[in-house]
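Example 3.2
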Amino acid sequence: MKIEIYNDRSGINVNKIDKEIRDNINKKSYKDDFLAEKRENKESDLNFILLEEYSILLERTWYYQANTPLASKRRITGSLIVFIKKCIRFLLGWYVNPIVQKQTEFNANVVKGYNELIIQLKNVEQQMKDSHINRGHE
């Protein structure tokens, strides 16, 4: 039995959006059992499942480091290639590192803002539920 869930105001099919996001996650190899566990535990908050899944992806990918380890699989020329790459990295570091640092700071602020929006949306939803319940008892 498949249940179709629609947003009352806009007619948005939550199940369809959910499937599209999962397909994109699978294509980009972000697949993780944690997302499925999160979904099973949050059946009551179906409106926020997608936002929380995006939040998980943002939390995983906000940090970027320019100085990744250098290596080469070539036996004879490998050490020379790594040395040249290190020299290039050193010469361009003054230019690249500040850009990467600013981007990482921006990413962190976006993730914090996104998470705060989720919290605020949940608060608004709860207030709306409370006011609806109060109107029903009057």
